[in-house]
Amino acid sequence: MRDSNQNSPIKKSPQERFLFIIGVLFFLVYLVLGLILIFWTTFPINMEPRYRIALGVVLIVYAGIRFMRYYKN
Fold first, then answer.
1. Among 49, 50, 31, which residue's Cα sits nearest to residue 41?
2. Do 30 and 66 meet the contact criterion of CB atoms below 8 Å apart?
3. Can you tell me the distance from the alpha carbon of 20 to that of 47, in angstroms, rounded to the nearest whole number?
């Protein structure tokens, strides 16, 4: 008889699982913050629109880099 755990994916330790959840959470934070900066026209901080959009794009790109790093692992 085969062990039923042989076909299951590798189990992660609680620490790895926690770090994965934190990584996904910060990916979402950077993505949402970038989208807010781009699409919120009455942003409470006085910034020129081109700088606000540039910062939003940088945050979205950084979120993509973080996602790719976690996806590879």
1. 49
2. yes
3. 34
